[in-house]
Amino acid sequence: MPNSKPKLLVFIVAYNAEKTIQKVVHRVPTELLNTFETDILIIDDSSKDSTFEKSHSVSLDDTIPFRVTALYNPVNQGYGGNQKIGYRYALENHYDFVALIHGDGQYAPECLPELLEPLRTGQASAVFGSRMMTPNGALKGGMPLYKFFGNKTLTWIQNRLLGSQMSEFHSGYRLYAVSALAAIPFERNSNDFHFDTEIIVQLMIAGLKINELPIPTFYGDEVCHVNGWKYGLNVLAAAAKARLQKAGLFYDRKFDCSPPDESPYTPKLTYASPHAYAFERVKAGSRVLDIGCAGGYMGTFLATQKNCRVDGIDSFSDVEEGLEHFYRHDLNAGLPALDFRQYDYVLMLDVIEHLARPENFLDELRRALSVNPHAEFLVSTANIGYFIPRLMLLLGQFNYGKRGILDLTHTRLFTFSSFERAVEQSGFDIVEKVGVPGPFPLALGDNALSRLLVAINRLLIGISRGMFSYQIFLRIKAQPTLESLLMSATEHSARRRESLSKTS
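User: That's the sequence. What structure does it adopt?
Assistant: Structure tokens below.
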């Protein structure tokens, strides 16, 4: 009969731990075998002492009821790099859970049964043992005062940056569902000590639940290999990068682990945005074509709030019911065959930068709209001249991401002048041009700070539209084509000649 118990790997990272490694193995509770098929993995990260020899010896000890495997890294991989190898081992050997403890005995193996319970019952994807949940417990356990306040301060800042409520980001006592590790790109993380912060960030971005449970604090005579200042700067940099990536201002592949069904397209009608500006300019009761309508939320809003009749075009198949007609069509193939004389407004908001050949598309749209001199074309795009990309470029950064100006799906980037030139050369007259401030309410939430930043951004746009506009919004009209002007001249000439012949 096959074993129905879940498979648990107790993973011990070890470096220069010859005095403690065997004691740590002997402290792993045998009661784990009642619930889990349990193995122990020790990885010695190229120690300068006899850590591997002691680990190998304990793997041969018949008094230990677990299967113990000892591995040795011939080249030191660092604290984070050693973890990566252990987690890869857990994935390749099809474990259900992996529990990380340290070979120096700082984290009590006796706590494993309690810490594993939320994983076993499916209440969490990761469980961290926290030394900060018991008031003054860390100090009573011997944590130096400077480390205590450093831990508290860093955790407070990281929580503010990430919008989390962790009691401690810096515990090395960690347990994971192996399925959670499979869902995040932990192999892209640092090999240094801030690996621990990066993997927390990844779990949060992926929407995987983290539980914290209190653990005792124990500080013995182990040697600390962490450079405190470097570590502090690294963990804050990791949290800041994740926050900037969420705001669309930075991109790092290690933090690109959002759930696959998370749509990058969200309604943008509650703050200063091209969608809000377009909504203000469309008159009630109008006939509207929304090119690149995504889920159709703009059309639905116009239909419900302004009684407009809205058609939508997009390559998506899922749209809201508020559209009168929906045309599934790849815009890179050009325009679908529609009668553009029926529309009062054509919207193309945050779409043109996704096209392979936007100038060709503008040419085709101008020809389609030239038969309708009253129709207005409302179009927007990202402004690569915004001061943040300029600053990032000055710092040697040009980071594409999942959203924002440098969206990974953008194929063409414009400044104010280059976009105006593209529009005018395609035969459109610009009726109105507006600089759009940054989407601070989207990045920070609709609060006093984000509203203040929008107000400041508006003032700066008044000083330099090209530098401080996050996006470009244009209201334009199609000029008559040369073909239609020639035809008009021919027709008018014929009528005038006929009039002259009658009077002569």
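The longest helix spans residues 482-503.
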